[in-house]
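re: ur question from earlier - yeah i can do the single chain one, its not a big deal. heres the input i used so u can compare w yours
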Amino acid sequence: MNEIYGYVRVSSKDQNEDRQLIALSEFPVPKKNIYMDKLSGKDFNRPQYKRLLNKIEEEDVLVIKSIDRLGRNYSEILDQWRYLTKNRKAYIVVLDMPLLDTRKNHDLMGTLIADIVLQLLSYVAETERDNIRQRQAEGIAAAKKRGVKFGRPVKKIPMDFYRVYNRWKNNKISGREAARLLGVAYNTFIKWATYMENESKGIKK
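and the output i got, formated as tokens:
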């Protein structure tokens, strides 16, 4: 008897997977056959996905909530789709897109329609991600022109620094002790000390 499997991917450990799990259980996919990775989809080095590929046999069914669960870019999604349907001869059901159900229309026309829809959706998804990145970059560039500062704010050097710095400079205390007295990280103290030394030498950073 052919098995029904489900795959869930969330991009980080903080992202909630409930929506995908509910959709798969309603298909229904047996709970024991649901594999889940809480990792980035930038590549396919995902342990649960690999376990799933080792399980799937000819005419088994793989159910996913949306096509982007297979990957994050156009070529990877297409490669995985072809591997599963052509090499493993398994069926794929994409719940968000009924046209992407390879159990239906096994003839040449049905396969052609599914391939066209898949390629179009994958291309649109990747293009939208590129557009989002471009809009973010343009927004940051525009904000910088307006004088908006990005990154962590520069920690202001406290008045006590000069007294502590002189003790450190005269080898009376260590750098870590100096940082502790100022209540800052060791790297922060060294950064301030380097700045002071450059200033005394007339070096502009």
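The CA atoms of residues 165 and 193 lie 7 Å apart. not sure if urs matches, ping me
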